[in-house]
Backbone:
């Protein structure tokens, strides 16, 4: 298993590796020194000052002006976690929980939170030994970060809350003991440092983006197969057309569609002057423009998340003195915990993917509708009437697209004041991220349905053969799902192809 040193910046691949238990983080020597330097500033402040410093010797949120006596700052931190662990709903799946724990450890390891190294070491040990806190999905508005869900994470470090260990849900105390990890007695600022930040929304978004990027690439394959099955043209994918608009996604998709269709006997069979078609419908012809726009949007989302996984989103922030004098360090309150960058990115991702799904659903209609298809049997089935073929598969795709459109209401424009109006503008980032994941799941199935229909259409064009790449995709599908000769249980077929998409197996087949 790979080890990731938190002395260095994380990559999105690092987050995915930890999420799926392919790697574990450690607090390396350089990061440990950073953490110690920031902690020394907090300790020096507590020894020499009685002036209020938010989160160190004050209450929280609307109670920020309430000064806490020095002998109660430890109780303050434990009370913070207990009171803020108010999440509800189904728990996040284990990969999301692991990503959340990693990202929180990374924030603390940057050396601006003022915690002791033991907090980071404990989070790393929990990941290594498989102690996964039970974190509810609902309860955060992305205000001072993801307070409620992160409190559920933090409680387990102290032996409270609940966690899953080796497939069994138990108390935090039992899970930590079973894994041989000592629990932590929090000190000044440490409870706050565990919960201030955007790590929940960011973790969900990173896992959603991974699937979204794979989905976008697979949609190109589905579209290319549909072009073949529909006796469409590749002329609209000419590089000279893309050169006149200069959007990078447009050019990339046009190139890829040409490559996917290379060697297609089906396309060559009607490429001459006798072809009766003048132009294909937009859902085929405009794939470079639409799929390309989705790629460009996801590229922006990737840029935001690459920054956010290494961002320090705590508050207040500790800035040690460059010369090493803890008494000269600064403690600054700010708003890095606000989730607006992630929220906007997740909104854009949902809108883009829903557009991708809408195009895919229209291509499905082109294939199954005998009034639109190029001589294909009604609903792609022999003996239609007795057999309904892919009639309701198209309805399922339409339902998924419609549901996704409903999920596209931007979360980032919503806000509701909280904490007695101290937190008077919030990001709704966690909601945006969860909806991002929901839309990904919907559109994966829409594209899976198109792949099934396009493969069935290619079967109808035999003995003409598809292109080298589209043929590889067709064979990968047929290895899992046989040609539809008569009506059968389609839900299983849809899920089988959706899993080919999700796992990356279809992309791998085409790449090979």
Residues:
């Amino acid at each position: 298993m790979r080890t990731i040193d938190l002395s260095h910046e994380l990559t999105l691949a690092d987050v995915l590796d930890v999420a799926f238990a392919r790697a574990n983080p450690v607090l390396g020597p350089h990061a440990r020194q950073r953490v110690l330097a920031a902690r020394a500033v907090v300790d020096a402040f507590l020894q020499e000052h009685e002036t209020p410093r938010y989160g160190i010797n004050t209450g929280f949120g609307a109670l920020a002006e309430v000064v806490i006596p020095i002998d109660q700052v430890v109780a303050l931190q434990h009370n913070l976690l207990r009171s803020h662990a108010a999440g509800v709903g189904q728990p996040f799946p284990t990969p999301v929980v692991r990503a959340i724990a990693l990202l929180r450890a990374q924030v603390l390891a940057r050396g601006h939170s003022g915690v002791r190294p033991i907090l980071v070491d404990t989070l790393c040990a929990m990941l290594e030994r498989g102690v996964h806190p039970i974190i509810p999905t609902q309860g955060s508005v992305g205000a001072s970060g993801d307070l409620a869900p992160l409190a559920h994470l933090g409680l387990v470090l102290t032996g409270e809350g609940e966690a899953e260990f080796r497939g069994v849900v138990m108390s935090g105390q039992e899970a930590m003991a079973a894994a041989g990890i000592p629990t932590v007695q929090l000190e000044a600022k440490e409870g706050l440092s565990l919960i201030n930040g955007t790590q929940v929304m960011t973790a969900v978004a990173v896992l959603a983006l991974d699937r979204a990027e794979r989905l976008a690439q697979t949609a190109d394959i589905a579209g290319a197969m549909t072009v073949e099955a529909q006796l469409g043209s590749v002329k609209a994918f000419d590089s000279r057309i893309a050169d006149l608009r200069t959007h990078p996604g447009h050019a990339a998709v046009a190139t890829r569609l040409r490559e996917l269709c290379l060697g297609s006997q089906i396309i060559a069979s009607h490429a001459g002057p006798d072809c009766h078609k003048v132009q294909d419908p937009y859902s085929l012809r405009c794939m470079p423009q639409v799929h390309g726009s989705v790629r460009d949007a996801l590229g922006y989302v990737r840029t935001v998340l690459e920054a956010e996984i290494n961002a320090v989103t705590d508050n207040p922030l500790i800035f040690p003195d460059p010369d090493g004098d803890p008494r000269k360090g600064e403690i600054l309150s700010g708003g890095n915990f606000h989730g607006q960058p992630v929220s906007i990115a997740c909104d854009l991702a949902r809108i883009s993917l829903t557009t991708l799904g809408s195009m895919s659903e229209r291509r499905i209609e082109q294939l199954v509708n005998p009034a639109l298809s190029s001589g294909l049997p009604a609903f792609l089935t022999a003996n239609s009437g007795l057999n309904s073929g892919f009639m309701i598969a198209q309805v399922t795709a339409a339902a998924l697209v419609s549901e996704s459109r409903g999920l596209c209401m931007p979360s980032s424009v919503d806000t509701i004041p909280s904490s007695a109006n101290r937190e008077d503008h919030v990001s709704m980032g966690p909601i945006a991220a969860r909806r991002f994941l929901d839309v990904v799941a919907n559109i994966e199935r829409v594209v899976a349905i198109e792949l099934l229909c396009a493969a069935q259409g290619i079967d109808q064009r035999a003995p003409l053969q598809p292109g080298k790449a589209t043929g590889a995709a067709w064979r990968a599908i047929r290895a899992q799902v046989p040609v539809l000769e008569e009506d059968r249980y389609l839900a299983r077929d849809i899920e089988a192809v959706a899993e080919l998409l999700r796992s990356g197996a279809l992309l791998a087949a085409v790449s090979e």
About this structure: Residues 205-315+331-511 form a domain with the Fumarase C; Chain A, domain 2 fold (CATH 1.20.200.10). Strands lie at 2-5, 23-26, 88-91, 131-133, 136-138, 162-165, 168-171, 317-319, 330-332.
